[in-house]
Amino acid sequence: MATRFSSLSVSAFLSPSITHKRFSLLIKTPLVHLKRRLYVTSLRTLETDPSLPPSVQTFWQWLYDEGVVSAKTPVKPGIVPEGLGLVAQKDISRNEVVLQVPKRLWINPDAVAASEIGQVCSGLKPWVSVALFLIREKSRDDSIWRYYFKILPESTDSTIYWSEEELAEIQGTQLLSTTLGVKEYVESEFTKVEEEIILCNKQLFPTPITLDEFFWAFGILRSRAFSRLRNQNLVVIPLADLINHSARVTSEDHAWEIKGAAGLFSWDTLFSLRSPLSVKAGEQIFIQYDLKKSNAELALDYGFIEPKAERNAYTMTLEISESDPFFGDKLDIAESNGFSETVYFDIFLDQSLPQGIIPYLRLVALGGSDAFLLESIFRNSIWGHLELPVSRANEEHICEVVRDACKSALAGYPTTIEEDEKLKEANLDSRLAIAVGIREGEKKVLQQIDGIFKDRELELDQLEYYQERRLKDLGLCGEQGEIIFWES
């Protein structure tokens, strides 16, 4: 499912005393009944697809009543392999606008601030306040978004919703540890907000909020929130969030904020969505959720993975140990070059090692007779020296440590790559398919890393180290590495 969040001011959307005004005007003169044009949206009907679930048909009618869609809207909700999606009602060209949603229907921190719970939520993390808002609005029969909430899923295939048995299928993976960490974080935030906000304001939260509901809201935000709109870091946008992801889309430029008509008689900021690809009538519209996310991130956020090899990744964590006798000097050098005490390098399958990883490894391993490079006289030039091999001992140590780490990680998986590949030949359910794809991908990346440093070990005798480079600079070393002695 696609992602979006919308911001809407409840007070601006609900006009006070409108019924009474209309009644009094009609009493004064029957001719004034022409003013009912103001309410024409509530009387219009839109032909809907009878094959769609009633909740989706009602949602589409609501958008029609709000002036968001019309019979000429180029897309409509449809049943697709992913669940719900946006289907073209006509041929659509590349970059053509397919829908626009006014800001009054967005759900974001501004919508929370304008609501009854705005004051008590003002000090919370933005996502926590929006999560509470989603849960509360979902329980209200008079919520502006009541028809929208009825089409939202209760869960996705995101790993945060997996059972213990399902999580066992990703044993040994980094995705498992990340998932457990995220779940622990969400539970901690719930405990805190329950104690400080929910239980203290029962007049605002008359219905108890459960941890499961909080996880539901977190998952909705994680999978549907837009973050690229101007001045919007967390915004859910009904209808726009039905659009699904496709690996065929290679651009993330599909959403804009514009000023335009937001109904029959109003103007507003609009979320404008364009199709990044040309689409034929009856086909699904797709966008690209995020070009930089790994399969593990896609599985955690959205509950799917891509078959593309370059989506498979493994995160290598490097750290300058506090027990290192040169800890202070190394940390100072790392920070001076844009790094910190702990650094995370995402290594992707079939791609070269990320920039900075080798120099950082050399820095962490620096010691013994190479420690002179840590002296202050080298402080402004040491990173340049670390870009090249320092010494055989340093380079050998790097290879040994990295290869041992790869072998240890590979031993933690319950299956081999060959076993995973055989499993993929069967018709797996969606979650098991994700698990098999993730663990296979991680293992391939680990084998790739191990291979890179194995090849490096074989080249140790051919590498040129700092001392040789220094002697050459002084004219004391030949091209073959031989020491040159000058006769007096």
From TrEMBL:
Q: What is its EC number?
A: 2.1.1.259
Question: Mind listing the GO biological process terms from this record?
Answer: methylation
Q: Which GO terms describe its molecular function?
A: [ribulose-bisphosphate carboxylase]-lysine N-methyltransferase activity; protein-lysine N-methyltransferase activity
* Lineage top rank: taxon: Eukaryota
Per UniProt, S-adenosyl-L-methionine binds at E82, G83, L84, R224, N244, H245
InterPro entries per the UniProt record, alphabetical: Rubisco_LSMT_MeTrfase_plant, Rubisco_LSMT_subst-bd, Rubisco_LSMT_subst-bd_sf, SET_dom, SET_dom_sf, SET_RBCMT, SETD3_SETD6_MTase
Reaction(s) the record says it catalyses: [fructose-bisphosphate aldolase]-L-lysine + 3 S-adenosyl-L-methionine = [fructose-bisphosphate aldolase]-N(6),N(6),N(6)-trimethyl-L-lysine + 3 S-adenosyl-L-homocysteine + 3 H(+)
The alphabetical list of record keywords is: Chloroplast, Methyltransferase, Plastid, S-adenosyl-L-methionine, Transferase, Transit peptide
The record, for SUPFAM superfamilies, names: RuBisCo LSMT C-terminal, substrate-binding domain, SET domain
Provide the binding site for substrate: R224, R228, D241, W256, Y289, Y302
| PROSITE patterns in UniProt | SAM_MT127, SET
Name all SET domain ranges.
Answer: 66-290
The answer to keyword Transferase applying to this record is yes
Q: Where in the cell is it found?
A: Plastid, Chloroplast
Q: Which family does it belong to?
A: Belongs to the class V-like SAM-binding methyltransferase superfamily. Plant protein-lysine LSMT methyltransferase family.
The UniProt entry, under PANTHER family, shows: [FRUCTOSE-BISPHOSPHATE ALDOLASE]-LYSINE N-METHYLTRANSFERASE, CHLOROPLASTIC, UNCHARACTERIZED PUTATIVE METHYLTRANSFERASE
Q: What is the name of the protein in this document?
A: [fructose-bisphosphate aldolase]-lysine N-methyltransferase
Q: Which organism is it from?
A: Quillaja saponaria
